[in-house]
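quick one: FE2/S2 (inorganic) cluster bound model?
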Amino acid sequence: MVRYDKKSVITLSVNGALQDVVVRPSDLLLDVLREQLALTGAKPGCKNGDCGACTVMVDGWPIKACLMLAVEAEGHEILTVEGLGGATAVQTAFVVANAFQCGYCTSGFLMVCQALLTQHPQMPEEHVVEEWLQANLCRCTSYQEIRNAVMLMYEAQS
Ligand code: FES
Ligand code: FES
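yep, here:
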């Protein structure tokens, strides 16, 4: 019988560094990042896969960290908002476009936009941007400012 409360040590690759963590099979990647590695940029919102506040990148793709078990993340490259460093094109674009108010959703949007840039280095068609942004919810600011930030992010690449 599988013991879901049994803890074991796994090694996660987070923001370019290997980190040992002690997890149960049922521990969420989101909780392990926040509680064991003090990476609190990924936010708990719905914890149900709906809001995107917990988004990180795994192997270059946006992943909702509340839907991934920590044990599933072993052997993959995890990038959190802390790993962006602070002066990337996407972060600058969000500031210039005023694409946030309370900021709770912002780290998730930054990561989904960074993943969009990773997977589509050239600006894709508008409907593609819309599809990517649909993964995340914001309850304060206008989505138009976030769209504007995506435009600025791509302009900074050209
Ligand atoms: S907290 Fe993960 S999608 Fe809402
Ligand atoms: S800026 Fe407040 S929820 Fe998005």
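The domain at 8-83 is CATH 3.10.20.30 (Ubiquitin-like (UB roll)).
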